[in-house]
Amino acid sequence: MARIVLSTPEGQQVVQLRDHNSLGRHPSNSLQLLDKIVSKEHCVIERRGNHFVLRDLGSLNGTYVNGERVNGEQILRHGDDIALGSTRARFDDESGIPIPPPAPYGSPLPPPGSAPFPPGSSPGVAPVGSPPESDFGKAATDRTVQAFPIGPSPSPPLATTTRVDVHDRARSIGTQIAATNRGFLPYELLAGNPQQLAQDYERLRLSHELSREIAL
């Protein structure tokens, strides 16, 4: 879950964001700000899908993101600078990328459209032109890395179809069963027909033997 890092008169405070967060001076807010320039119900930060959206509630002195006043709503991005009243905050989506600390409490607003990170830098990356942190890092930069093309990995061999061969005895039994075209008759019709009863018994016997041969 994302969080905001606040600069207050008491120092920095980290607040874990919930799905709905109301900010303002009134104690009914989920995050009460003891800032006399902040409105009683100043703004809301709420989760929508994979993003957090800041919505100003018509506050008198406004809510600012990266130096620009929010008119209505604005999606928050990692490292965004937030200002409401004298309170300053920094949005952290907890992606693990380092962000600068928020500006001190009561500090002036940054120029409109200011980037959340210093020019020439990006989150978690040293500014352009900065010296390497160590000789090891410099040596790693000087080395030439040769890339070797990697071809597609060979596909695993396809499994061959398993074939079960029934020996001659079982095949002979199956042929005998297939040669009988008539189906089994109800018991009422077999009771007075010993010949048909014998034929059905023979078919059952052959089926049983075939099952045993296949099982073996």
Commentary on this structure:
By secondary structure, the chain is an alpha+beta fold. Among the domains are: 2-93, Tumour Suppressor Smad4 (Sandwich); 169-214. It has 4 helices and 11 strands. Helix 2 (168-178) packs antiparallel against helix 4. The strands form 2 sheets. The chain has a 6-stranded antiparallel sheet with strand order 2-1-11-10-7-8, with no helix packed on it. A 5-stranded mixed sheet has the order 4-3-5-6-9, with no helix packed on it. It is 21% helix and 23% strand. The longest helix is centred in the C-terminal third of the chain and has 22 residues, at 194-215.
Quaternary assembly:
single chain
- The overall pLDDT average reads 75
CATH architecture of the domain at 2-93: Sandwich
Order of helix and strand elements from N to C terminus = EEEEEEEEEEEHHHH
Helix fraction, binned, reads 10-25%
Biggest sheet details: 6 strands, antiparallel
